[in-house]
């Protein structure tokens, strides 16, 4: 999936590059480049089209186009299959074919624009926030930053600490959701609490309005600790799921 919109060129630029390539291949042909607002585009509605160029990996898409055309009362398109060129310099983690996805992969970690100078921001400590879903690599990046000297703050761990008896969110959460969320030893039963908010946006917001500000405050306290320990000139990484 193309989940890095910052690394995808604007449509106008991509269309211009495509036109330049096509006209270089065969300038005698007339090319009509149109944006695709859906997966099928005009191929399922244009009665004048006769052929659709596909590759081995997009043939199923071409067959889906023909099914849609038949549903719309249009004749099927001839599917002309071409072979994709291979990238001789692709790495082990990149696609074998020449692909824009590989280009975006190679751009990861590079500056897209110079750092913005904001005089209102303090020069230290420098804080980096790591966010993402499960398996997105937060822990690996945080570990690497730690090896480089960063003071690592794991917001997931703070998210657990905030609920413990005596923790900043303990009493407000118990007051909001009742004693039935408590274990016999007085600790909050996260599963019982989760069942109360799962699928209930109002209750979930009620919980996050209590917990998230407390976690943010704990993060700020850890940042101040890092600065006091002399780590402020390095990096502080806060790792948390979205």
From TrEMBL:
Entries under Pfam families matching the protein: CoaE
GO molecular function, one term: dephospho-CoA kinase activity
Highest taxon of the lineage: Eukaryota
Single Gene Ontology BP annotation: coenzyme A biosynthetic process
InterPro entries: Depp_CoAkinase, P-loop_NTPase, Rossmann-like_a/b/a_fold
Record keywords: ATP-binding, Nucleotide-binding
PANTHER family in the record: BIFUNCTIONAL COENZYME A SYNTHASE-RELATED, DEPHOSPHO-COA KINASE-RELATED
This protein's name: COASY synthase
Protein source organism: Dicaeum eximium
Gene: Coasy
